[in-house]
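Q: Here's a chain of 235 amino acids. Please give me its 3D structure as tokens.
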Amino acid sequence: MPKAKSKPPVDRPATKAPGRTATKAPGRVAANAAARSSADAKPSARDRILAAARSLLEGAGGSAEFNIDAVARQAGVTRMTVYYQFGGKPGLLEAIYDDIAARGEIGERLPLAFQQPTLEASIDVLVAAFAHFWASERTIIRRIRHIGALDPELAQSHGSRDRRRLETLRAVFARWSTGGGRRAAAIAERKAELIYALTSFEVYDVLASEGRSETEITKDLQYLALAAAGISAPG
């Protein structure tokens, strides 16, 4: 007589005892939350590289000891990570310059020059904005510009930044232009170029090296800029 075929086992979902739910211990939940918070607060590789580069530029060795290997060591990353994030030394220094510009509030201060009621007030605001920018990270800016003098690619980038300063001054004079033809335009251009020279980092750095404060230097530069613009300074 043939044997009855046995039925294959059927998987059934495990059942939980009614009224009971899985819970995590409060201490473990708090520990996991703290771990996530710590991970979120940890600086990124890019931030660590920027901080290391700034530290090296501010240090006693300055620009002489600034190189990709030194930055990578101080940031705790590989050379390839630095190249991946910034493409090389010029890109890294440009990123530092952008960071300084943000800290120096240049993007917030310059537009205010175009909201002033007079040309005199516009010039005062521009001069103060550039002086504050140079003062914000004077040592680092000086050393970046020193490196740029020896690096054609970086020098070209600095030249572009400086030309934007000149373009801003030209725009201010154009805003207050009352016509007058080519002669008036040539005079306005000469005034913009003179103030451009007065608001350079090199001029600010020389004045600051004599122990003057940012406020004192700003007042002196505003006085000279107004004189260059043919405006009598008050007082």
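Q: Can you summarize the key feature?
A: The domain at 43-87 is CATH 1.10.10 (Arc Repressor Mutant, subunit A).
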